[in-house]
Write a structure and sequence with these properties.
The chain contains seven helices and four strands. The protein is of the alpha+beta class. The chain has two domains: 75 residues; 192 residues, no CATH class. A four-stranded antiparallel sheet has the order 1-2-3-4. Helix 1 runs parallel beside helix 3.
């Protein structure tokens, strides 16, 4: 039966193997027992913990080797005319979808800003927007330039549209939270930048059901577009990471059977 010292030495040996494959700095195993970090780890570690580390490191080492082998196969394939064309086709498809996402976001921001300024005034704009979260704010025209727009501090409305339907819940939430920075002058509200005028805008926004509906519809559409594009990007990236596996799958697909519908892998929401 191996002692804890033997187990910890194996942990360090496996760490070195992984570091070597990744081109990282390795530890001198001949001097390891005199290292204070080794001695401290030896005192604090339990046998079952070290065995668990060894199992995890063996799995990680196997993954590193597999990734290197796959990368070598990919490099050789991409060096062929067929592989180069395949890679170019995938990279172009990925770039097109990312561009489609940028254009969608730009159009969505432009539409919402147009509706805000139509109803609340030209001093309102969209300061941030990312899938489920939009921030609309009061524009500081005097502090803004053509290159960069500035907004008044604390005069923001954060809006969230969260659709969890089909993810174990049947729940769509459309919520808002507006900035508060303490007391403000009641006898004001005539100039942009005054807190009173900001709250007048909040009230006008909430009382305009058509405007609220348009913001909700825009955000709901963006969530759906993000999900669809993320699935497409995940599929394309998976094929780019292992093109030979996809080619083999296509070659072994029976001619008299249609391709099975692709089931996208689980992904974190967002376009990258």
């Amino acid at each position: 039966m191996r002692t804890n010292k033997d187990l910890l030495k194996e942990v360090y040996r496996l760490r070195n193997l992984i570091a070597g494959e990744r081109g990282s700095q390795q530890i001198d195993l001949a001097q390891i027992e005199s290292d204070y970090r080794f001695q401290r780890e030896l005192r604090e570690s339990k046998g079952y913990e070290l065995r668990g580390q060894i199992d995890a490191l063996n799995r990680e080492y196997a993954r590193v080797i597999e990734d290197k082998q796959r990368q070598a196969r990919n490099d050789a394939y991409f060096a062929t005319p067929e592989g180069a064309a395949h890679k170019r086709r995938l990279e172009e498809a990925i770039a097109q979808r990312r561009q489609a996402w940028k254009e969608h976001m730009q159009q969505s921001i432009s539409f919402v800003e147009g509706r805000l300024q139509q109803t609340l005034g030209p001093h309102w704009g969209v300061s941030r927007y990312s899938e489920e979260h939009m921030t609309i704010s009061v524009i500081d025209a005097a502090g803004s330039t053509l290159q960069q727009r500035k907004y008044y501090f604390g005069q923001d409305i954060d809006i969230w549209y969260e659709d969890r339907t089909g993810r174990g819940m049947n729940n769509v939430r459309f919520r808002a939270n507006c900035g508060t920075t303490g007391s403000f002058e009641m006898e004001g509200g005539g100039s942009v930048g005054e807190r009173a005028l900001f709250y007048v805008g909040v009230g006008r926004l909430l009382s305009d059901r058509n405007l609220v509906r348009d913001i909700r519809h825009t955000m709901a559409t963006t969530v759906q577009v993000a999900d669809n594009l993320a699935n497409e990007l995940a599929r394309l990236q998976k094929e780019l990471d292992d093109p030979l596996k996809e080619r083999k799958r296509q070659e072994t697909q029976p001619e008299n059977k249609p391709n099975k519908q692709f089931k996208p892998p689980k992904h974190s929401r967002g376009i990258r």
